[in-house]
Amino acid sequence: MNVDPYLIVNGDVSLSARIYREPENLLVRQPAVIVTGSWLTVKEQMADRYARALAARGFTVFTFDFAGFGESGGGPRQAELPARKIADIKAAAEHVSTLSFVHPRQVGYLAICASAQYALAAIAAGAPISAFASVAGWFHDMESVAPFYGGAAGVDLRVGRGREALQDYLSTGSVRTVPAYEDGNDRAGMSLPLDYYADADRGAVPAWTNQMAELSWHYWLTFDGLSAASAVSTPSLFVHGDDCVLPDNVRRIGKTLSGPTEMVWSDGGQTDFYDQPAQVDLAVDAATTHFKRTLSA
Fold first, then answer.
1. Domain residue ranges in the chain
2. Name one Pfam family in it (predicted).
3. Looking at residue 181, what DSSP letter applies?
4. pTM of this structure
């Protein structure tokens, strides 16, 4: 398999990307799939796992670091800004759709966890994505996300911290950071036990910076990841399970979309779908079938 560095530009920000292909000859056209992972992550984590598997199935696959993360440009760094990520997805899809080694108008998008809600919003905003697959997708609004952070009081606490950090950034240019993951630390982006982010053999890879800009809270907690669904008619696949996050929201979105929708419900917890063979293989099999049907030449 060929894995090559690439660059996608969104405005004046360079997005570090990778291309995964089996054929070396760029005259061989293939359908394209863009893959992105969870919030606060980089392309070397769960996105790489899925990209390799899909490339082996006959797709040209692209991964990239969102602005402010990993090897990409842009500031503030380590900031989870949904609108910025949606714009990056739209720019990536527009760029990929211009390439001569992929089939015209055949760009699929596979999003794992939180990037699924951003991809759905990008599609609603006109991103040229012909088929969508969500794997353990995280779709939230303030009401449904609050229980993860101790209810309304926990949300208010974190939004307040986010406002303070934002004011500091606007006044001084300093980005106040907290851990992206630290078990038991209520200032961390993720404070529940999550082995994926603690294990160097899983998600704690060298390319990942375990930091979150604290100003992210104001944007993350107030984002509406559900309302875009009514504007989407793109053929969509949802691989999920009752032990994954927010399953009722996934069902709700599936009923709201105006295009063809398929649900594949499975066993396994949220982070199992990031890298565990049973869950990843099931998701890749389902995505391959979905993309080969919807991205036909």
1. 2-145+225-294
2. Abhydrolase_6
3. B
4. 0.97
